[in-house]
Amino acid sequence: MPDVRLASPRGKWILLTTVLGSGMALLDSTVVNVALPRIGRDLDTDLAALQWTVNAYMVTLAGLILLGGALGDRFGRRRIFVLGVLWFAAASLLCGLAPNAGVLIAARALQGIGGALLTPGSLALIQASFHPDDRGRAVGLWSGLGGVGAAVGPFVGGWLVDGPGWRWVFLLNVPLALLCAPVAVRHVPESSDERAYGRFDVLGAVLGAAALGLLTYALIEARTASWTVAAGAVAGVAAAVAFVVVERRRPDPMMPPDIFASRQFTAVNLVTLCVYAAFGGFFFLAALQFQVVVGWSALAAGTALLPTTVLMLLLSARSGDLGERIGPRLQLSVGPLLCAAGMLLMLRVGPGASYTADVLPALLVLGLGMVTLVAPLTATVLASVDTARAGLASGINNAAARAAGLVAVAALPLLTGMGEEAYRSPEAFDAAFGPAMLICAGVLVAGSLVAVTTVRRPAPDCRRPQCRTHGSVAVPPLEGERDVPDREGA
């Protein structure tokens, strides 16, 4: 039985190392967008390379995050967490030293592998280490401190880009990892799950990541209309079909198809795909719009996005409480519409835009929409499956959100006619930004329609989320098993 108390020195060390580990991955998902214009100029690269700088990380992270959790359950959560932290740091060092865009993109893909190993492990370590009486508070502190990190991330990233340079956005992870890994080895008890058995679904994970990568390649490079793009698209579809076939036939699949037999689970994941596609596209393009078109510094652009995260930190728990009282349908229907209104307000953001008159109103409406929908979305995902599969359901939902975001980053420049050099031209980028916001708003309206027609009130005795405070705007919170056995440590 886990017996570490939160108030003990060991408990504080465990909380520190898990916050540092998950914070590294969370920071990179929020600050890299702010650095993109400077990366493009310094490495003299085109828009496609900037898209890949974001998406190479997301492809491997989304494709492998379920496998990362399974590896921790089998071989030891601390062991896999520390491996992920060190892997992430080594890849970050390579990102910071990258001499060209090709090396940077490859290093970002390696970073995603490290993120897939450490992200699910950080929460699992808390669940497996703390006494049951302290576990809820520990999870709350973990998610809250992670949210604070998400809020500070764009500010720190902008300061680094304008000061020491964009490379320090990545190099900062190295000292964090050098602090995190030894603390984990010394103070965090090892744990595993004796219920974890069977073969790992490595083939499924590889096929899933390959499908995402090939389809992303086809979307990013589609403007060239070459035979390699067509071949990539065909291969991506083939990999996706093979993934479905493998998951249906394996006795222990990474993503069991029967979990989608729950209409509620399927419906909420469709809503997730819509809203997080819009969010992914918005935060990718908005950071560029603020710098390329409005003319702000990286620090100003990063700071400008703070209101959405602050609103999430302050109000997400209250939104979850409201969803428990009235059911999720209303919030999942209204929330995307508020977000769509916020993106329509972004149409006012152009050359010479005022932050208080043009940008802030849009971000406040967008943030209120996020607050309205994120907490009930997570709760409905967990409530739509058996309690024993809640961790799996959350992992699938988290991966779906990441996949939706990377597809949006790949597709929006293509759909809006954004040229390879658009980020160097304020006029060209501004001309494409407006249509992109209209597309994002339309996708959000589609998500609202899915919610209003398919989402139903969960049973009163269903599983409730543990992460009540949420600050990430990139993905829904990742939940784990409520009672995680500790077989080797504590």
UniProtKB/TrEMBL annotation:
<dbReference type="InterPro" id="IPR020846">
    <property type="entry name" value="MFS_dom"/>
</dbReference>
<feature type="transmembrane region" description="Helical">
    <location>
        <begin position="138"/>
        <end position="160"/>
    </location>
</feature>
<dbReference type="InterPro" id="IPR036259">
    <property type="entry name" value="MFS_trans_sf"/>
</dbReference>
<keyword id="KW-1133">Transmembrane helix</keyword>
<feature type="transmembrane region" description="Helical">
    <location>
        <begin position="12"/>
        <end position="36"/>
    </location>
</feature>
<feature type="transmembrane region" description="Helical">
    <location>
        <begin position="329"/>
        <end position="347"/>
    </location>
</feature>
<feature type="transmembrane region" description="Helical">
    <location>
        <begin position="200"/>
        <end position="220"/>
    </location>
</feature>
<dbReference type="InterPro" id="IPR011701">
    <property type="entry name" value="MFS"/>
</dbReference>
<feature type="region of interest" description="Disordered">
    <location>
        <begin position="460"/>
        <end position="490"/>
    </location>
</feature>
<keyword id="KW-0046">Antibiotic resistance</keyword>
<feature type="transmembrane region" description="Helical">
    <location>
        <begin position="359"/>
        <end position="383"/>
    </location>
</feature>
<feature type="transmembrane region" description="Helical">
    <location>
        <begin position="48"/>
        <end position="68"/>
    </location>
</feature>
<feature type="transmembrane region" description="Helical">
    <location>
        <begin position="105"/>
        <end position="126"/>
    </location>
</feature>
<protein>
    <submittedName>
        <fullName>MFS transporter</fullName>
    </submittedName>
</protein>
<keyword id="KW-0812">Transmembrane</keyword>
<feature type="transmembrane region" description="Helical">
    <location>
        <begin position="436"/>
        <end position="455"/>
    </location>
</feature>
<feature type="transmembrane region" description="Helical">
    <location>
        <begin position="226"/>
        <end position="246"/>
    </location>
</feature>
<feature type="transmembrane region" description="Helical">
    <location>
        <begin position="80"/>
        <end position="99"/>
    </location>
</feature>
<feature type="transmembrane region" description="Helical">
    <location>
        <begin position="267"/>
        <end position="288"/>
    </location>
</feature>
<feature type="domain" description="Major facilitator superfamily (MFS) profile">
    <location>
        <begin position="14"/>
        <end position="459"/>
    </location>
</feature>
<feature type="transmembrane region" description="Helical">
    <location>
        <begin position="166"/>
        <end position="188"/>
    </location>
</feature>
<keyword id="KW-0472">Membrane</keyword>
<feature type="compositionally biased region" description="Basic and acidic residues">
    <location>
        <begin position="479"/>
        <end position="490"/>
    </location>
</feature>
<feature type="transmembrane region" description="Helical">
    <location>
        <begin position="294"/>
        <end position="317"/>
    </location>
</feature>
<keyword id="KW-0813">Transport</keyword>
<dbReference type="InterPro" id="IPR004638">
    <property type="entry name" value="EmrB-like"/>
</dbReference>
<feature type="transmembrane region" description="Helical">
    <location>
        <begin position="395"/>
        <end position="416"/>
    </location>
</feature>
<keyword id="KW-1003">Cell membrane</keyword>
<dbReference type="Pfam" id="PF07690">
    <property type="entry name" value="MFS_1"/>
</dbReference>
